[in-house]
Amino acid sequence: MRKICVITGTRAEFGLLRPLIELINNDAELQLQLIATGMHLSPEFGYTFNEITEAGFVVDKKVECLLSSDTSVGVSKTIALAISGFADALEDLQPDLVVVLGDRTEILGAVIATAMANIPIAHLYGGETTEGAYDEAIRHSITKFSHLHFTSTEAYRKRVIQLGEQPDTVFNVGAIGLDSIKKLELLDRETFEKSIDFNLKKRNVLITYHPVTLEKELPIQTFENILTALDELTDTALIFTHANSDKNGRIINKMITEYVETHKYKAVAFKSLGQLRYLSALQFVDFVIGNSSSGMTEVPAFCIPTINIGDRQKGRINCESVINSDNSLEGIKKSITFALDKHFRDKIQRQEQLYGNGTAAEKILKIIKEHPIIPLKKSFYNIDY
């Protein structure tokens, strides 16, 4: 039986991969292997390993690699620990194919170890660009280590080919995050409020802001601008999710904690909402603000505005509902006003969905099964200019 090993390091990543994990697990011709790593194993970030086991999956290996540090030195050492830990895990599991998603530092460590073990790699979400973060270089590096590529748009497929990958190994399957939106039974308002122990208000906002890792400046001023702009909204509930473990993420999380402590009447924060509560929240919020990739891919499916702040997601394809703002207080205020404009909100109800139709997992599984033997040697595909 062919062993397919899926690696997950964050709550968001597991939520995206879950439809594919379920399909692999239910396929009689395949054996699912799961490795949990990164923030999944950190109490500081919610110990979201429990979300995997509570979903009914067996985790075959845990790879501890996340240091309690978000400095550049700490991040570099996390990659080194990931390489070492995954070398041992893969030696024990001996998978036939490793599946990874995205551009996290621990995933880079995982694919380096996988490549050295001569195991083929399938990569989701290659070809995307995020000019404000070192994720950009990590993502393209993972592409070059990988043998099957599953992109979320045709433009990203072309970019992976531009990186020298053979066209017959690169597949535009759409964004896998839309699969869960299509299939999950989301919580109603009352159930959602009970699940977060917080009452929504007339207006509601979901905030997720991560460090912009290629900027020298600390994120303090930008996040203060976000808080100041949101503070001016009346009768508004603010739902924060914590920043990730990237460099300077703890600075943002400290600011969130301090703000919520003094604004308990209108603000609540979570290390992790989990996929079901996060997607359910999107039914009830008036807009999403921050710089998370989910604001670019999953949120537009709910036809609500995303205010995307700064350069972290610069380069990604934007749906019509995405409002790009600079880091200034004035720019953020203008973007909020635009997001609440009735004409704009009516217009985006008819927007084109650019990231597929929620069938990515089925397509990926079919392609994996159609490629039982994946050559490790790759020929560089040259483009004639």
From TrEMBL:
InterPro entries: UDP-GlcNAc_Epase (IPR020004), UDP_GlcNAc_Epimerase_2_dom (IPR003331), WecB-like (IPR029767)
SUPFAM superfamilies according to UniProt: UDP-Glycosyltransferase/glycogen phosphorylase
A Pfam family hit: Epimerase_2
UDP-N-acetylglucosamine 2-epimerase domain boundaries: 24-369
Domain of life: Bacteria
GO biological process: UDP-N-acetylglucosamine metabolic process
Residues annotated as signal peptide: none
Any one GO MF annotation of this record: hydrolase activity, hydrolyzing O-glycosyl compounds
NCBIfam families referenced in this protein's UniProt entry, alphabetically: NeuC_NnaA
Name under which the protein is recorded: Polysialic acid biosynthesis protein P7
